[in-house]
Write a structure and sequence with these properties.
By secondary structure, the protein is mainly alpha-helical. Helix content is 74%, strand content 0%. It has seven helices and no strands. Helix 2 packs antiparallel against helix 5. The longest helix has 23 residues. The chain is globular and about 50 Å long.
């Protein structure tokens, strides 16, 4: 198993937990929570693979379904402890966002696409699962709010290629990129950094 595979599975677990915890907050049953967790975990990668002309990764390896099952039972077993931890969902979501951004970029590089496509695919891999999750639980997706979410993925992509330009080691570049996205997301929320919102005529 390669380093990027390890990142992929950890990201799958983190995103699945974020989706399952949000589904639990909406009082979904176990199956509904599993579906939300799975969509959160594989949604972005599925869109990426379809755009790159590949068979979606989870259709070739059942391990991603097993990781989501493990995340479900993890939440069932330790749900009360997770609830007691402040910002648990946010932290798992931030971790998944950073890790999946790296996975999306790497898979696009392997497919031979240019830098700008790789950054877009990294952003889709990181952010699209959260969009599908929020849609399923009837929430306005984070990417459409003023939160620094997809922007964190884009900045992470730029950092990744900056690391490659300065000839950092491959795994080190991946670690720096994932960490950067996570830190940017956390700092933006903690420091209340956000993009300006559009004003309608009624707001004037």
């Amino acid at each position: 198993m390669s380093f990027i595979d390890v990142i992929d599975y950890i990201g799958t677990f983190a995103f699945a937990i974020s989706g399952i915890r949000l589904a639990a907050g909406k009082h979904f049953d176990w199956f509904g929570a599993f579906v939300v967790g799975l969509v959160t975990a594989v949604g972005g990668g599925t869109i990426r693979d379809l755009l790159l002309g590949n068979t979606p990764f989870w259709m070739q390896q059942s391990s991603y379904l097993l990781v989501t099952f493990f995340a479900l039972f993890f939440v069932i077993l330790f749900g009360r402890q997770l609830i007691k931890l402040n910002h648990t969902i946010f932290l798992f979501d931030a971790i998944g966002l950073g890790l999946f951004t790296v996975v999306g970029i790497e898979k696009s590089i392997d497919a031979g696409f240019p830098i700008w496509v790789c950054i877009i695919m990294g952003t889709l891999t990181g952010a699209a699962g959260g969009v599908l999750r929020d849609t399923l639980i009837n929430e306005v997706p984070l990417i459409f709010r003023k939160d620094i979410y997809a922007i964190a993925c884009i900045l992470g992509g730029l950092i990744f290629f900056a690391c490659r330009y300065f000839e950092f080691g491959h795994e080190l570049s991946e670690i720096i990129t994932a960490t950067s996205v996570i830190v940017i997301r956390i700092v933006a929320v903690v420091c209340h950094i956000s993009l300006p919102t559009l004003k309608s005529e009624d707001d004037k």
